[in-house]
Amino acid sequence: xxxxxxxxxxxxxxxxxxxxxxxxxxxxxxxxxxxxxxxxxxxxxxxxxxxxxxxxxxxxxxxxxxxxxxxxxxxxxxxxxxxxxxx
Length: 87
Prior knowledge:
11% of the residues are buried. Helix content is 49%, strand content 5%. It is elongated.
């Protein structure tokens, strides 16, 4: 039973560590965990309130974010499709 609990705990940790972060819903903390500083995280949140992200490359439109930073985190972030949007 202890081994089973251990594997469940490890699966949860691995899922948390390697989970993709959605640019349109990420918290300031989640963005900072990716490597953005506080101001960059706040600028991302401010930008998405005015313009929902449609793709990851739009991050370069955010004040203070360079292409090189986007390249470093692009495998950890995503832009989920809007579930409420009509087809």
